[in-house]
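User: I'm curious whether this sequence folds into something compact or stays loose and floppy. Could you predict its structure so I can see for myself?
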Amino acid sequence: MNIKCPYFAKATFIFVHLKGFSIAQSMKIKSFLARPFASYIYKGIRKGMASAVSDQENILKNLLKVGRITEIGKEAGLDKVNSYEEYRQAIPVRDYEQMRPWVDKIKEGRHNVLWKGKPIYFAKTSGTTSGTKYIPITKDSIPNHINTARNALLCYMAETGNTKFADGKLIFLSGSPELERVGGIPTGRLSGIVNHHVPKYLRTNQMPSYETNCIEDWESKLQKIVDETILQDMTLISGIPPWMQMYFDELIKRSGKKVGELFPNFSVMVQGGVNFEPYKAKLLESVGRKIDTIELFPASEGFFAFQDSQEAEGLLLNTNSGIFFEFVPAGEIFNENPTRLSLRDVKVGENYALIINSNAGLWGYNLGDTVKFLSVDPYRLVVTGRTKHFISAFGEHVIGEEVEASMLKAAKEENVRITEFTVAPFVSSDEGKSYHEWFVEFENIPHNMAAFASKLDQYLREKNAYYDDLIGGNILSPLKISPVRKNGFIDYMKSIGKLGGQNKVPRLSNDRKIADELMRWTENLQTV
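Assistant: Here's the prediction. I'll summarize afterward.
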């Protein structure tokens, strides 16, 4: 919090004199104080929209000042770098595997490896190809994680005037806050680390209890969360959409009521980790009434963007929070020397792989996510997929954005609700043609599955010209749908030890690893 804020001293004075108030009165003070602070922060964010490019240039300069004293900076010759053009020559694009040797040095106890000193945390996360990853979080980078989440809520408050949710109970469906030590550094899931930084004045509002949050088994944890929250005045619920849906399903099962009826003051739903759109309809149907939503783009490596407006489409890029962003045209990301663009050179509608350079000590780091800008004044974007999650078994390079948009359009037209889905190639080894196989868990089965599949295929052809050519040229057969049993995806995630937490099912795979496992939950259902 900026102590120069004119409202900070006033807020401090009021909080100091709360001793004579009841808990209920004290809690209402929170929403009262939130109004002026939200307005102050919101004005600063609006002002920052106009200075995004210069802010980015200043961040790069500041990163270089520190980077020159680090082991990685000395090896790269950052002391001789004075421009972005020179920086691109000095620092290559790297994935985690290429960063791992530097992280291993930190785990051995070395200082000044990627950033000055040592990280204050390692965020432990599972990579699809790298196994367990240890992402450094430094004293300089932790504000990016904490303040961005706060700013998203404050923008919402300032724009809508809704501050009452601050008086009720707030739940953050997250990983365990218990931390282990790796190389002497506290280590755990990012959501668990952030849990330790929840301001004290919000602790009375936060759910579930610390003890429940420490439960590792998701199914057991979910039951305890419902036990603790079902009779509370829940006003804000936050988490990854598929796990929020499991929470909602259990609440409805226990109470026989929609979530919005069970929690009449529930007014804000905050979500991130995956594209919200495929889950949105079912989540809102579970709530049973209109509710405001706030979408976030966080990761263990940083908090990159957030929804700053209920009116504007897309997420506002976090351009002044210790991260210098680069953008590589998605089709070039696996090239030896891909094109690298700074913020000033991006274009609306182009698909880019996101590269970050940060005060956590990540240099030229390929995050693995792809984004597309919807506007550059201000810089708002959407997440379009993962660089490693695509299908190009036949040269089509179908990406997450395309399958999600096709599914949403077909499901809406056919009045079908989807619980979860993933897509994989089926490569024929006999005379039959190959095709894309869609594994879909339906909440309600289409009346005419063949017609639904035909529409889905047509919409994907409209989205992807290469796929359209393969179907039109009679090289591929139209897609086939393999319906997944109820809770099949949950059972699959449980079988691989990734139920709950920050884990999610990839939308696309270029092989059959996930598809072959999912066959266990489709074996007695008709494939269309």
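Summary: Residues 1-27 have pLDDT under 50 and may be disordered. The first strand starts at residue 121 and ends at 127.
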